[in-house]
């Protein structure tokens, strides 16, 4: 009886070893299938960029992040396009505040004065650039009439904040009359205009990328078809220094004139939650409409990529399960200054491609 059990166990263990070996080789083969795309990702090329003509835009979490990037590097960022975002340090290190003060105010909403106070405190320690450097910037603000994800009142506070920073009415455009849901408005979108659902690329017969770039830059030529070879996948991991919530791969669009050495400008486009490469692949970078305008106007468009961090079962307020940019502190206690993990990673990318954000 004992011998029979031993023979059965040896046979079972042998089959188990074979199964494990097969699983190992299957996993290895699956991983190798993706090696060409990862191995083919190059560093960012060094281009001839005007360091005084860098701008940023973003949707939702990318919009909050765009404000943070603009404020932290205000001496070099000359404009910002904010689609459904809010004021600097709105969340104050709290996901609860991010949800119920900034996005959907419950008892209280964001306050422009506290946002300015936060900037002044960090600037006094030289952790962000002088806040007066924001005043000459060109600003584009957008809130869709059907957007109930980020409150209109939050965007109104952001406009008040820019006014307090000295941005003139002539340098600020605030679009509120489009019946858009929560998303980036693009003529290549598949979501109906007033809807709010993935992939948050919504079609309202309105070219938002063109609207943004025409506000941030003057005298743009009409868009042209982007070049296939202009869309480049690069190794973002070389610039993140292990920053939480950032992908190993990202994208950049390089117009022909820029690739040939002409002086160009840099625009940094930040996707929203559930829109990174991990979820949408290349869609945000290809379908928002920036590349057409970029090709015609010598604008390089950098598309940094965020990834999901699952929340632990015991604390759903932790992590980053939707692949958002960090505007409430999931990457660490410092998420607002020039030294913040994600902000400094984007700055390293900008410097590598030819537009350093620090003097």
Walk me through this protein's architecture:
The protein has helices spanning 2-33, 35-39, 61-72, 95-103, 112-124, 152-164, 208-216, 237-240, 256-259, 277-280, 283-287, 290-297, 341-353, and strands at residues 54-59, 77-83, 138-142, 172-175, 184-185, 191-192, 201-203, 231-235, 249-253, 265-270, 299-303. It has 359 residues and is of the alpha/beta class. β3, α6 and β4 form a beta-alpha-beta unit. Residues 1-39 have low confidence and may be disordered.
Rg over CA atoms, rounded to whole Å, is 23 Å
Number of strands: 11
Number of helical regions: 13
Helix-strand topology string: HHEHEHHEHEEEEHEHEHEHHHEH
The structural class is alpha/beta
Shape assignment: globular
Q: Enumerate the spans where pLDDT stays under 50 for 5 or more consecutive residues.
A: 1-39
Strand arrangement, major sheet: 4-3-2-1-10-11-9-8
Gap from first CA to last CA: 81 Å
Main beta sheet strand tally, sense and closure: 8 strands, mixed
Strand content: 5-15%
Helical content, roughly?
25-40%
Mean pLDDT across every amino acid position: 90
